[in-house]
Amino acid sequence: MEKKFELLDKISASEIDKKVEIPETLPVIATRTNMIVFPSSVLPLYIGREKSLSALEESINKYNQLILFVSQKDFAKDNVDKNDLFTYGTVGKIIQLVKMPDGNYKVLVEGLERAEITDFLETEDLFLVKTKVNKSKYKRTKILEALIRKVKKLSLNYVGKSKKYPDEIMIPLDETSSPDKFSDFVSSMFPFKFEDKQYLLEELLVKKRLEKLLDLLTNEVELLDLEEKIDERVKSRIEENQREYYLREKMKAIQDELEDDDEDILNFKKIIDEKDLPEEVKDKAEKEIARLEKSSSFSPEAAVIRNYVDWLLGLPWNEYTKDEKSLKKVRKVLNDNHYGLEDVKDRIIEFLAARSFSKNLRAPILCLVGPPGVGKTSLGKSISEAMNRNFGRVSLGGMRDEAEIRGHRRTYVGALPGRIIQTLKKMESRNPVIVLDEVDKMGVSFQGDPAAALLEVLDPEQNKDFTDNFLEIPFDLSDILFVTTANVLNTIHPALRDRMEIIEISGYTGIEKLHIAKEHIIPKTYVEYSVDKNQLKITDSALRKLIREYTRESGVRNLDRMINKAFRGAIAKIAEGEAESIKIGVKELKEFLGSPRYKEDDYKRKEEVGMANGLAWTSVGGELMYIEVLPIPGKGKTIFTGQLGEVMKESAQIAMSLSRSICSGIIDAETFEKSDFHIHAPEGAVPKDGPSAGVTLTTAIISSVLKVPVRPDIAMTGEITLTGRVLPIGGLKEKLMAAFRLKMKEVIIPAQNEADLEKVPDEIKNNLKINFAEKIDDVLKIALVKNDKLG
């Protein structure tokens, strides 16, 4: 909502008072033009920023129209803080105020005194400062009088030569008897550089101020003399009416006078001579430089050419880093930085081993898929460190513009190459490791599909001739080791997925997390907090409890946070002098981390009728999913709650039909016709879908009908058919890890998934009894507590 400045709208020029008592505290307006307010000068300013308008209103309301004008260091910056302002400024008085049609204000300001900011009292809407008024210092000596005369003479000379000022402008100089006011008037009158004007404002010694003005005016008069000579030389060469030719000749004369070529052009030529560039790139650069030399340095085309040549010559066309040849060293670095993840490590070792036989071997394009916090992104950095290559990262999450990959045509204003080429320039080598993070989270918009643009980048057959729209010259990307990361595969474009080597990274087991905590997280935390190991320790039993009861995740991100939190609590006690050293055990965890978020008995329950434990796969790992079935008097309807998806509802209908078939010879057939079956999956806010809950739904329905409880220490997964066959499912490793993590004793999985157990850690297989089921009868015999009714 636009802020209204009612006091500014109401006040008129006639209402502005002219008292000149300068208080210690004043509001501040940050100026961002070369026009610095000097004492004894009157000049107009345009005020439009909200903080400046607030300061202006505060000045009129509370400070008798007095305000401090201070220049900001960076003119381009809109939102400034106290570090962006100079400490010296001028106390000014508002003598006229006019509101412009665009809502801004034109203010006529009279400079009063120099002032130095001694303290900031910044509020939310404006700057308030404490100030100290600084008086100029001088003694009337002959040297001072001589300086004044010389400056006055040069000022008259400048005004006469420049032809930009009226003769009346010199009248105040003749009427001013004060050396202080004289120097300030000259400082404000002429177009000196901003840095010089700021110096003149901050200098309190009038003698030094006049000496500086003498130097500046001497330089300005010499430049005007030089311009006159150039004009005379140019005019002697051309006819009177040839304006365009005149301007070109004037530019040539200026360049002749400078007796020097453009510094950028010289640098470009030097790079071409020294750098090993492909012939195509060299020819293109030389043609563009020739165009640049013929162009005016102030033309928009020159800026476009200069930017293009800078990018073209800045890329690593033939610069490489040397790969580490010792495979033992590579494996050691990978093992030191990451625990587990053997599939990825083996693939890197295989590539380097094969590269030692064939120099033309293309780098693999790896896609690491797994839940958050398992180390996908950091693994890319470890790979670059192990291979002795430079490391770059491009975040693709939320990207929806094709030009982010391919770049913009250089004819567009502000055009740049794509992110791949930009990263290569930063890396300064053409064979880095580049991580394309969150490749599964790209979007599509009217600006194109970035996933389609990546097809060329990630295709080993095409990326050796990748052409960025900005460069318009092919660049070989085949030496780059691309590592992409994703949480799920189904959202990745099928054609893009086909071009990558998929390596699935599952979550960590409790033992793996313990190793990671001891070998990676804790050593890193010691370094981060600069704590002596003898001063602060954490026991293995505390780590196990922390893993088991304070975090429940596939990765180790929350574990890292919890360890850091425990360390910070312990360090605080040491810093406060409560203890010289602390050992964090099981008892201390509650003090530093609070009560456990998860309890071991969360999933320990009694045998219940109509309730079975299912296993589900999510993008953040496996989860245990309860299925509850309750028959109620009705007309044979099925009620679904818990945000079940369409596929899961169909699976429930299959389970219902199969259950009626199985129970038809055991109970009265009217039981199903006179009952409604309410099927519910707890945690109703979380959507659930997929066919793998088929056996769980069937087990829960039969349990509810036969009044036979289901074992609470067993979990199951598997798709079901109308004939009772149990079909294979996906995400087996994650599901078994969830069952292990949540203290299940047995699991039932489809018999066709037996081969997938090779990827499951031995720790899980040794602690879980895994049952295989081909038919639903196999499931019911194991899952139901009493199954005499089934025979």
Topology at a glance:
Elements: H1 6-10, E1 25-31, E2 42-47, H2 50-62, E3 66-71, E4 88-99, E5 105-120, E6 127-134, H3 142-162, H4 171-175, H5 179-189, H6 194-202, H7 206-237, H8 243-258, H9 263-274, H10 279-294, H11 300-314, H12 327-337, H13 342-355, E7 365-369, H14 376-387, E8 391-395, H15 403-406, H16 419-427, E9 433-437, H17 450-457, E10 466-467, E11 474-475, E12 481-486, H18 494-498, E13 501-504, H19 510-529, E14 536-538, H20 540-550, H21 557-575, E15 582-584, H22 586-593, E16 608-609, E17 611-618, E18 621-633, E19 638-641, H23 646-663, H24 670-673, E20 675-680, H25 694-706, E21 709-710, E22 714-716, E23 719-720, E24 726-727, H26 732-741, E25 746-750, H27 762-767, E26 769-773, H28 776-783
Observed structural traits:
791 residues, alpha/beta, seven-stranded mixed sheet, five-stranded mixed barrel, elongated
Concise structural overview:
The chain is of the alpha/beta class and 791 residues long. The protein is built from 28 helices and 26 strands.
As a percent range, the share of helical residues equals 40-55%
Radius of gyration over all CA atoms, rounded: 39 Å
Low-confidence stretches: 12-19
Q: Name the structural class.
A: alpha/beta
Widest β-sheet, arrangement of strands: 19-20-18-17-22-25-26
The amount of beta strand, in percent, is 15-25%
Gap between N and C termini: 75 Å
Q: What's the total helix number?
A: 28
Largest sheet: 7 strands, mixed
Mean pLDDT: 81
Which oligomerization state do the chains in this entry correspond to?
A: single chain
Which descriptor suits the 3D outline? Answer: elongated
